[in-house]
Amino acid sequence: MTLATTPRVFAEQRFFKPFYFLLLFTMGLTGFGQMPIFKRYYIADIPGLGWLADFYATHYIHYIGAVVLFGFFVYAVVVYFGLMRRQFRLTWAAYVRIALLALISITGIFRVLKNLPDVVFSPMFTMVIDISHLAFMMFFMAFGIIFMISKKGWLDKKLGF
Amino acid sequence: MPKELSRRSFLKGSLVAACATCASQVPLPASAKAKDGQELATLIDIRKCVGCEACVEACREVNDFKYPEPEKPFPKMYPNRVKVADWSDEEGREVRDRLTPYNWLTIQSATVEVDGEETELSFPRRCMHCQNPPCADLCPWGAARKLENGITVIHSDICLGGKKCQVVCPWDIPQRQTGVGLYLDILPSLAGNGVMYKCDRCYNRIAEGEMPACIEECPEDVQIIGPRDEIVAEAHRLAEEEGAYIYGETENGGTNTLYVSPVPFETLNKAISKGPGQPHFDKVEDQMAHADNLAKAMLIAPFAGLAAAVGRVYKVSKKLDDKTGEVL
Ligand code: HEM
Ligand code: SF4
Ligand code: SF4
Ligand code: SF4
């Protein structure tokens, strides 16, 4: 038998989900930590969550998360094309998620560029980038919840498997 | 942001702008330009200052039109831990011994020994205009930003008064006034709390070729302003020829305000009163170094992901003949 006709279970199918979930949860949490809300709304008073009000800590973790995320994106794309595409196809819900993740990442990259010492953006551009990073993230969260309730995963099995 | 833009028209503008983004018409960065070495810096020679406060008065006079005129009563804010910061009454406006929304420059003094003689030194304190300002980098909203000439400003039309800039500023410079600004038009009870104010290095005067008021009005010529390289060179000259000590060249990765002092800054730092609105002279590490380093890591990360994935695909492909159903 060849790979083309044998249904396989890849380790990625098991570890991607928790990894992805944890990573995006971290990004969302530390992203919201960029806004001065966790202290105002007592969340940082919960024992163990004090760091959420430390803007430098959340900023650092958000950046580390972005580093991991970019590595993970490339890994997932290559593994999908290299191994899984024969057996699976992406659902439309996956395409929606990918589009929003791409938009979040692109706006995030601009935000990172802005934070470099030598780069100066106009206030309007900074604000558009900022609001759209947040807006895409909100859409992503809303769709994530909808997809979770309606059980729309990322992959469909192709016919014949 | 043009000064004359009103809050409401701004709000409309930004919503339109945000929608335009959805339609993939991202406006191009108007001034996404690398600095060309033309950042302006000031040199403050502590040895010359006589503490007359002429600079303080000059600052207050020329910047008076930028000061907040809050609407009262202030909106009730939730939760009630959110405190009102109000300097707008007569007494508050007159405060000069610290930074406030109405006082962007304050004179500190220190009694120290200079050449074996007890001497009272005085010196103006205000925003340092960091080269990589955390207040602007971390402003979640784009209100605080650095201009190409090295000035850091907080746009009062845009600021929501969340005070993050003050929290992340190594010197706690920006000061809040409740009851003004954009937050009144959004969710005044739930988010924001006014506008943050600080020295904007008279950016409007500089744009018109004028001097910052505090520099112009000082009878002792305590401050000079110029391209940063020249200012640094002058500070070094004073350090070498006259044994002065320098502050600001490397603090927080480098600021556009350099102080020279006849005594080490640790000595000065011990002798000044520090507290809210009264900045210290501590050593300050580059607060944004992590962001610069991790930005590089973001460039490398995709290659790491690629290498890992290619290795993985290769390894699995070699196991092609293995049993069905095995986890690969
Ligand atoms: C999918 C994951 C992500 C989520 C859920 C997320 C969420 C957020 C949120 C809610 C904010 C605060 C709102 C704002 O300031 O706009 C934020 C800010 C920010 N995000 Fe993300 N983000 C994500 C990915 C990224 C990525 C990939 C990058 C970098 C390439 C990035 C860089 C930033 C930066 C630089 C800020 C502003 C922080 C600052 O400098 O003040 N984010 N993010
Ligand atoms: S005007 Fe000049 S001499 Fe007077 S307090 Fe200010 S810096 Fe010092
Ligand atoms: S001193 Fe504080 S307020 Fe001034 S530019 Fe630096 S971080 Fe911003
Ligand atoms: S530069 Fe202008 S705004 Fe800043 S302290 Fe001097 S007079 Fe005030």
Describe the 3D structure.
- Chain A is mainly alpha-helical.
- Chain A folds into 2 domains: 11-85, no CATH class; 88-161.
- Chain A is 63% helix and 4% strand.
- In chain A, strands 1-2 form a two-stranded antiparallel ribbon.
- The longest helix of chain A is centred in the middle third of the chain and has 30 residues, at 55-84.
- Chain A is globular and about 55 Å long.
- Chain A starts with 10 loop residues before the first helix and ends with a strand.
- With 328 residues, chain B is an alpha+beta fold.
- Chain B contains 10 helices and 10 strands.
- In chain B, the strands form 4 sheets. In chain B, strands 8-1-10-9 form a 4-stranded mixed beta sheet, covered by helices on one side.
- Chain B has helices at 7-22, 54-63, 90-94, 134-138, 164-168, 203-207, 213-217, 228-242, 265-271, 289-318; strands at residues 40-45, 106-114, 117-125, 144-146, 152-154, 175-177, 195-197, 223-227, 245-247, 257-261.
- Chain B has a single domain (25-287), classed as Alpha-Beta Plaits.
- The interface between A and B is large, with 62 and 71 residues.
- Bound molecules: protoporphyrin IX containing FE and iron/sulfur cluster (3 copies).
- Protoporphyrin IX containing FE sits between chains A (24, 27-28, 31-32, 34-35, 59, 62, 66, 69, 101, 104-105, 108-109, 111-112, 115, 130, 133-134, 137) and B (137-138, 140, 298).
- One iron/sulfur cluster binds next to helix 2 and helix 7 of chain B.
